[in-house]
UniProtKB/TrEMBL annotation:
Record-level Gene Ontology MF annotations: ATP binding; ATP hydrolysis activity; transmembrane transporter activity
Keywords assigned by UniProt, alphabetized: ATP-binding, Nucleotide-binding, Transport
Name of the protein this chain belongs to: ABC transporter, ATP-binding protein
Organism: Pseudoalteromonas tunicata D2
Transport found in the keyword field: yes
Length: 235
């Protein structure tokens, strides 16, 4: 039985042009992420990891190449179209959490549901939020504000928010970057459990120990996919 492709990049390039220079951040990237995959992307600082994740998350566009989410070509969408597709198909977990302190944990998680094309009933919203809180073991914190939580707890809430729309893929940017080792280990263990239960994950991390927890390890070097040996020689 063939694997179902969730995300596919074909010959993706990204260049940044100023009056003084042209920088090739990504060069000829081919990448396929399948249903149930757990992919880590590693590499030295400045190798293009963040640029690649921004393109995957429709927060930026490639200079050339094609990007498919399922059968949908999202290579040349408008800003509004990208926002709509991102909300419905992609869960994005930011290193800095990006929670809104004025809103409760419940309302932070519910926020993506408020922007759906087809609105949900209050009951359906409550059911989805409660299910995601349970997944990240934070049901007891639903009424709290983010600034009442530890960093590890805030990251769990950020993950729950990213999961609430049942995304095709969960994109995770340095999930342990703002956490101590104990909380970092706990978050990584939770990501592993989510993947075991069917969540498709693509994670950028600088930590080789956490990268090893993924099913597939990919490496970027100077904007191109590299094997592990060439990466070790470079650093």
């Amino acid at each position: 039985m063939s694997q179902v492709s969730k995300i596919k990049l074909c010959n993706i390039t990204k260049k940044f042009v100023t009056s003084e220079m042209e920088t090739h951040a990504l060069q000829g990237i081919d990448l396929e992420i399948f249903a149930g995959d757990y992919v880590s992307i590693s590499g030295p600082s400045g190798c293009g990891k963040s640029t690649l994740l921004a393109i995957l998350g429709l927060l930026d566009t490639a200079s050339s190449g094609q990007y498919f989410i399922g059968d949908l070509d999202v290579s040349n969408l408008s800003i509004n179209q990208r926002a709509s597709v991102r909300n419905e198909h992609i869960g994005f977990v930011f290193q800095s959490f990006n929670l809104i302190d004025e809103l409760s944990v419940f309302d932070n998680i519910a926020l993506p549901l408020r922007y759906r094309h087809v609105p949900l009933s209050d009951k359906a919203v409550a059911e989805k939020v409660s299910a995601c809180l349970e997944k990240v073991q934070m049901s007891h914190r639903a009424k709290h504000k983010p600034n009442q939580l530890s960093g590890g707890q805030q990251q769990r809430i950020a993950i729950a928010r990213a999961l609430v729309n049942d995304p095709a893929v969960l994109l995770v940017d340095e999930p342990t970057g703002n956490l101590d080792s104990k909380n970092g280990d706990a978050v990584m263990q939770m990501l592993g459990e989510l993947n075991k239960n069917g969540t498709t994950i693509c994670m950028v991390t600088h930590d080789p120990r956490y990268a090893d927890m993924a099913k597939r390890k990919l490496y970027l070097l100077d904007g191109v996919m590299a094997d592990e040996l060439s990466l070790e020689l470079a650093v």
